[in-house]
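Hi C.,

You asked whether I'd gotten around to modeling the 275-residue construct. I have! Everything is below, sequence then structure, no commentary in between.
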Amino acid sequence: MAEAVEAVEMRAALLRLRRTTGLPVAFGGLLHDPGQVRLAELTGAATSALRGLLISSGNGLGGKSIALRRPFAVTDYQEARHISHEYDAAVAAEGLRSVLAVPVVVRRKVRGVLYGALRTALPIGDRTFDAAVAAAKDVEQSLAVHDEVQRLLSLTREPAAGSAAWEEVRAAHSELRALAPRVPDAGLRDELLAVCGRLAGATATDGTLMPIGLAPRELDVLSCVSAGATNAAAAELLGLRPETVKGYLRSAMRKLGAHTRLEAVVAARRAGLLP
C-alpha cells in the first residue's frame, strides 16, 4: 500500500513537471535497494528503453545526483564529460540529449530521483531547473508525511497514558496537524487529517466523547499548544500571525468552557479532540 501511494506521488510530480516546464519527457523512480533507484514512472516517453532501469549511486547523471544529493543537468548526455556512461544505450534509444536529474531527499536520505529531458541539445534554463526542484520537494513532503503517519501509528500500539511514547504521540500529532494545511495533494491532506482524528477520538481520557465542535484552525492551534508551543511558535508552524493564533485559541477556550490554555487542552483531550 505504501509503495503504491509513493508511486502515485511520483507520477503526479512528473506530470506537474512536464506541465509547468514544457519538457517533452519526464521520468523517475524511488529507491529499490540501498543505493539503487528503479525507473518505474515515465511520461512522454516514445519507447520503453528506460522503464525498469536500475540507476546505481555514482553511475550516470542520476547516480551522480544520488551520490551527492544534489540536482545536476547536462546539455548533451552522450558527450557529457563529468558523468559516467553506463546508461547511454537506453538514453540514446529514447532519443534524449539535454537531461536534468533531481534527487528526492527525505531527512538527508535519498528516496528517489526525478528526471526531465529534451530531445535536442539545448541548455536547460533556470526556470525549468527550479520547477524540477519544486516537483522533487512535493514528493519529499508527501513521503515525509507518510513516514510520520506510520511512525505515529506505530507509537499508538497500546501506549501507557503517561509514558514517554505517549508524549511522543502527542508531539507527532501536533506536528502533523500543523503540516497538513501545507500538503498540496487534497486527498493526502484529508487522509492525514482523518488519521489525526481517529487517533484523537480513540484516546479520550475518560472514554466519553463530548459533543464539542472546534473549527479546523482552532484545533490546529490547540494541537500546537498541547505540545507546548507558544502563540508565536504556533503561528510560525501554521503560517499564521500571532494575533490570529490568539483569536483561534480564545474561540476554542470559549467553546470548551476553559479559562486557561491548560484547561482547554485537558478539555479537548477529554472530548477526544486531542490525543
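If it helps when you're writing up: Residues 198 and 258 are 24 Å apart (CA to CA).

Thanks,
B.
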